[in-house]
Amino acid sequence: MLSYKTEKNGDAHQKKLAYEQQKVADISKYEADIIYSPRYSDDEYEYRHVSLPDKLWKYLPNPPRLLTEDEWRGLGVRQSPGWEHYMVHKPEPHVLLFKREKDYQLKYPLGAPPPAPALDTWRN
Q1: N or C, which end of the chain is more exposed by having fewer CB within 10 Å?
Q2: What are phi and psi of 56, to 5 degrees?
Q3: CATH of the domain at 101
């Protein structure tokens, strides 16, 4: 016989699994409807905004916050390396605002800056 706590944990696990399966299905179905703006820039950065279709809005965090790269890619957003979700426009949290260093792809043709050198912590 299962305890109430075990049954409750099992129900929560099943709900989370169903939610994740539905998310994958929805992203697969609606990712073609994601709208990518043209890029625009200033002296330091290039920018773009990405509008998620309304069927994907429910997968955004509430309250709105900045997303990590894994999170926005997990919503079906596809972009070249270097983009950072840098601002939440609260009236339209489904419009993700991105920036990256200007000329990023020319500066980093391998997709990312080289790792910083290790600091020499042993000084005599």
Answers
A1: C
A2: -105, -5
A3: 3.30.170.10
pLDDT tens-digit map of 40-63:
999 999 999 999 999 999 999 999
Domain that includes residue 85, residue range: 33-107
**Per-residue pLDDT at 123:** 54
pLDDT band at 116 (very low <50, low <70, confident <90, very high): confident
Structural domains counted in the chain:
1
Partner residues linked to 41 by β-bridges: 46
Does 69 fall in a domain? Answer: yes
What are the two backbone dihedrals, phi and then psi, of residue 105, each rounded to the nearest 5 degrees? Answer: -70, -30
Closest to 75 in 3D by CA, of 111, 123, 28, 122:
28
Using left for φ > 0, alpha for ψ between -120 and 50, and beta otherwise, residue 78 falls in beta
Mean pLDDT calculated for residue range 11-39: 95
Q: Is residue 41 part of a domain?
A: yes
Would you state the pLDDT for residue 115? Answer: 77
